[in-house]
Specification:
This protein is α/β, with parallel strands linked by helices and 571 residues long. The protein has 22 helices and 21 strands. Helix 13 packs parallel to helix 15 and helix 15 packs parallel to helix 17. The structure holds ligand C2E and magnesium ion (2 copies). One magnesium ion binds next to strand 18.
Length: 571
């Protein structure tokens, strides 16, 4: 009996679909064409995903592994490959080991590749893989650098040695600037290659490093030992930053990549030094890119102790009501009238004075405390709106929301409940989302933003220009306002690059129908340029520092509103 082509096809398809293995076909360049049912289930492929938009590399790796690149290298060179490979789960992004057979299917006449096929068997149940995954835990398969646990071990040894020798150890936490952007524009596959190059450059530049490890996606840790003072650590960080002035060559193009570095200098315990270095890099990034920040942490030192107690204290501070909110006016540039205000949290820390948010928001985010802080700020914003409404003044208040809040499925509901409780109209509340966050987990965050919009609140994109959003994403998310980051505003008066940048941002925002607020206006020269460029709203020390609720109410209910600029409390 013979089968028709159609019958053959059907039989093969049911054969393939009845297999428990992941079976897929791709074009010779890796564009996915087909994944069998078991395969889709194995990698939790979303139903609505069009697989023709995906690449084989998206499936067989998360962030690249040696096995992955080895496998890819072979099959893209037209050679079949067999070995321990990887599959990536699309829902949780975790990779798991598989026994992989990848075949290059060729045209029988021309012998040219016509398709790539891969059959992958889940090996998670099989004990033999344990050995391999132990190896991978110790070494990062993409870059060949040591992994986190090895790094910590070496760091502990270094600290012990340093204490004995009267020297110091130092942890440099290196974070690639705008890596998300690179990843989005080049694709995972190419971005992985770039990370390998970054790792190599660190290896070559961090002369004398005791250990270099890959900490996470685009984060690297460098251990230096035998240092005599803090200056030496700064010098190393400075040299590393300079080492990145030289571009990388990616697919024959020059790609400029910078790094930000957090340095923890001193001898405390290993995990604390890493946490402090992480904090330092966060500070470095918040002050701009391609910078470093250094935190000193010798055993029993003020800074290290400070960090730990701050961590504990922040929990208590919230309960004790030590957090409070200031409000910074936003003015209309045509007449300098206050049209809105931004709520900015502060911590009145006993015996320390007022702690600015940049010093504890990161901590709050990493411990989940940010949700409670966000709720407090929301409540004080609503309370202020209500107080003003009761006095016949209608003001819009903006609050900052962080990523953790936006991925919380109950966040929009919580906001709505508070608005109802305070009898505040949703249109009087703006939620500010910083640009980098908005682009992070666009699906989940987009959902929350859509719910908030539906509830009637306004959404702002904050710190615009520091992230990596595309015009498409801006159009995709229903923003109402764009806030131009202070970094650009500060140089808008110099008629240099930033003048053109701000002009371009304004033109784009206008084209997208977004309102615009310039942040951090400090001088009247900056203000003049902004007016010239047609920027409608501004916020900054030129008009007012963040002030208390009482002060703001006093200003707004002051009889002669036109005189606000001269009002003494209103700098
Ligand atoms: P942001 O949302 O961009 O807030 C504006 C920051 O710029 C504020 O710093 C403000 O005091 C400062 N600023 C305003 N005008 C000027 C100026 O003319 N010159 C200069 N040099 N600075 C100016 P602040 O209050 O220290 O807040 C820093 C950041 O902390 C905020 O940046 C925001 O991202 C975050 N943050 C503040 N409050 C909250 C909050 O309640 N929740 C969350 N998630 N983040 C918050
Ligand atoms: Mg803001
Ligand atoms: Mg901002």
């Amino acid at each position: 009996m013979t089968f028709s082509t159609e019958q053959w096809r059907n039989h093969f398809e049911s054969l393939v679909n009845n297999s428990d293995d992941f079976i897929a076909l791709a074009t010779p360049s890796g564009k996915m064409v087909y994944v069998n049912d078991a395969g889709k289930e194995l990698v939790s492929l979303p139903d609505d995903l069009d697989i023709s938009d995906t690449h084989l590399a998206d499936f067989v790796t998360s962030h690249g592994t040696l096995a992955y690149s080895e496998e890819m290298d072979h099959i893209f060179a037209g050679e079949n490959w067999k070995g321990t490979g990887w599959l990536r789960n699309w829902t949780n992004n975790k990779i798991f080991a598989v026994q992989a057979t990848s075949i290059v299917l060729t045209d029988p006449i021309s012998n040219e590749p016509v398709a790539l096929a891969t059959i992958r068997r889940d090996l998670r149940e099989i004990n033999a893989v344990k050995l391999e995954s132990d190896r991978l835990r110790l070494h990062d398969p993409l870059t060949g650098l040591s992994g986190r646990s090895q790094f910590e071990k070496k760091l502990e040894e270094s600290i012990a040695r340093s204490i004995m020798n009267g020297r110091y150890a130092s942890v440099l936490f290196v974070d690639v600037d705008r890596f998300h952007e690179i990843n989005a524009s080049l694709g995972h596959f190419v971005a992985d290659g770039l990370l390998v190059q970054v790792a190599n450059r660190l290896r070559n530049s961090a002369v004398g490093a005791q250990a270099i490890s890959r900490f996470g996606g685009d984060e690297f840790l460098i251990l230096m030992e035998n240092l005599t003072d803090k200056k030496q650590a700064s010098e190393i960080a400075r040299r590393l930053i300079v080492a990145f002035d030289e571009p990388f060559v990616v697919e024959k193009n020059d790609v400029f990549v910078s790094v930000s570095i957090g340095v923890c200098f001193g001898n405390t315990n290993a995990s604390q030094m890493i946490v402090l270095a992480d904090q330092a890099v966060y500070q470095a990034k918040s002050r701009g890119r391609a910078r470093f920040e250094i935190i000193e942490a010798t055993l029993g030192s003020q800074v290290a102790d400070d960090h730990v107690s701050k961590y504990r204290e922040l929990h208590l501070a919230i309960d004790r009501g030590e957090l409070f909110t200031l409000f910074q006016p936003i003015v209309r540039l045509t007449d300098k009238k206050i049209v809105a205000a931004e709520a900015l949290v502060r911590w009145m820390r006993p015996n320390h004075g007022i702690v600015p948010p940049l010093e504890f928001i990161h901590l709050a985010e990493s411990t989940g405390l940010i949700s409670r802080i966000g709720e407090l700020v929301l409540k004080s914003a609503c309370a202020l709106i209500k107080t003003l409404n009761d006095q016949g003044v209608s003001l819009r208040i903006a609050i900052n929301v962080s990523q953790l809040q936006l991925v919380d499925p109950n966040f929009a509901l919580m906001v709505t409940n508070e608005l109802i409780r305070y009898e505040v109209s949703p249109g009087q509340l703006t939620l500010e989302v910083t640009e980098s966050v908005a682009m992070d987990d666009i699906e989940t965050i987009g959902r929350t933003i859509a719910q908030l919009k539906e509830a009637g609140t306004l959404i702002s994109i904050d710190d615009f220009g520091t992230g990596y959003s595309s015009v498409r994403t801006l159009r995709h998310l229903p923003f109402d306002t764009l806030k131009i980051d202070r970094e650009f505003v500060s140089a808008v008066d110099e008629l240099g690059n930033d003048y053109a940048v701000v002009r371009a941002i304004i033109a784009m925002a206008n084209a997208l129908g977004l309102s615009i607020v310039a942040e951090g206006v400090e001088t009247s020269d900056q203000q003049d340029s902004l007016v010239q460029l047609g920027c409608p709203y501004a916020q900054g020390f030129l008009y007012s520092h963040p002030i208390s609720e009482g002060e703001l109410v006093a200003i707004l209910t002051f009889d002669d509103l036109d005189n606000i600029e001269q009002s003494p409390g209103f700098l």
